[in-house]
């Protein structure tokens, strides 16, 4: 019987590295499982470093390099494996998905200083903004001369970063931006804008992407000078001890203004907050507990499945709101009936004939 010979054995290591460098993360990981000759090549940290830099340009910043090079993170390949797939709130039926990694123990307190945030914004597949923050900033302002405090959870010593407003924009083709109807601006932003917000636990060495990559919604806020608000985010499954409904919604809101005369988007601010299924904002410390559990959530590279989970969450939210409205109306009718009954009983002796 003729023995099969792997053709990659005849290739030198430099050529294999050049071949692997042309693949994306999923293809490179799959290639490493097919041949013992390729496996050591696909574990080369320089390959994963380049792949992370091309996917998240913020990882090339000095602050990110220092974090990702630490022993707790486990290298760029682990960061990519944690950050590239998106959070999947519902496990698909009849799918061979791995079991959801469980949080070692329900934590009652999470320190803000344990986290770092890695932010990248893309427009038409080009990165227009990359930043690394300590902690989880509530609001990122893009006004010249103003500072942004990464103060979430009542920390007394927030770190600050300064931005130049003139550099916080991305160009839009003049023939596509100037004079367009408002509805086309919505389509333009929804089609070409992408955002990544990777949360990194510096102590545990785990990371998770809190964004949806694509916008979940685009609207214009006329009360805020007509600025456009683009929402990204995810649905985070949590333990019942953290939230009774076992799920929370992470919302990343990016505010920008279309400068028609200059032909570009000018960024105003980016904010992040957590809300429960009723739409109520969650406090700072409880929000940290939620994002901490996001580190152990199920992930998927299939964005359609992620969007389907988001839609199911919104349907569940609408059903709960309908049920709450019905209960409120029922309570109002019962209260009104009791008042009418009491009024009639009190008035009855006075209307009786003598």
From TrEMBL:
The keyword Transmembrane applies. InterPro entries: AT3G44326-like (IPR045283), F-box-like_dom_sf (IPR036047). Signal peptide: none annotated. Keywords: Membrane, Transmembrane, Transmembrane helix. It comes from Acer negundo (Box elder). It comes from the Eukaryota. This is F-box protein. The chain crosses the membrane at residues 330-351. PANTHER family: F-BOX DOMAIN-CONTAINING PROTEIN, F-BOX PROTEIN-RELATED.
């Amino acid at each position: 019987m003729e023995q099969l010979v792997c053709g990659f054995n005849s290739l030198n290591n430099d050529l294999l590295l050049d071949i692997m460098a042309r693949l994306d993360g999923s293809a490179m990981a799959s290639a490493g499982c097919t041949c013992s000759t390729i496996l050591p090549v696909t574990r080369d940290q320089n390959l994963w470093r380049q792949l992370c830099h091309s996917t998240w340009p913020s990882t090339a910043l000095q602050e990110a390099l220092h974090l990702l090079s630490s022993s707790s993170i486990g290298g760029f390949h682990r960061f990519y494996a944690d950050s590239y797939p998106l959070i999947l709130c519902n496990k698909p039926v009849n799918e061979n998905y791995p079991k959801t990694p469980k949080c070692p123990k329900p934590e009652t307190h999470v320190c803000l200083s344990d986290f770092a945030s890695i932010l990248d914004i893309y427009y038409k597949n080009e990165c227009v903004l990359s930043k690394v923050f300590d902690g989880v900033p509530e609001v990122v302002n893009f006004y010249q001369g103003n500072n942004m405090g990464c103060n979430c959870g009542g920390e007394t010593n927030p770190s600050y970063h300064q931005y130049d407003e003139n550099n916080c924009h991305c160009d839009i083709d003049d023939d596509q931006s100037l004079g367009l109807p408002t509805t086309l601006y919505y389509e333009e932003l929804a089609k070409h804008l992408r955002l990544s917000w990777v949360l990194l636990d510096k102590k545990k060495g785990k990371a998770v992407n809190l964004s949806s990559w694509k916008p979940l919604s685009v609207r214009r806020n006329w009360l805020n000078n007509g600025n456009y608000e683009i929402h990204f985010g995810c649905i985070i499954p949590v333990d019942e001890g953290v939230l009774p409904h076992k799920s929370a919604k992470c919302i990343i809101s990016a505010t920008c203004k279309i400068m028609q005369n200059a032909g570009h988007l000018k960024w105003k601010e980016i904010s992040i907050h957590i809300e429960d299924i009723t739409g109520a904002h969650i406090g700072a410390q409880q929000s940290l507990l939620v994002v901490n559990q996001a580190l152990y959530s199920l992930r998927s590279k299939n964005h359609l499945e992620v969007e389907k989970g988001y839609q199911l969450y919104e349907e569940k939210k609408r059903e709960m709101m309908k049920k709450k409205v019905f209960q409120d109306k029922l309570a109002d009718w019962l209260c009104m009936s009791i008042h009418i009954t009491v009024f009639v009983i009190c008035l009855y002796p006075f209307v009786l004939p003598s």
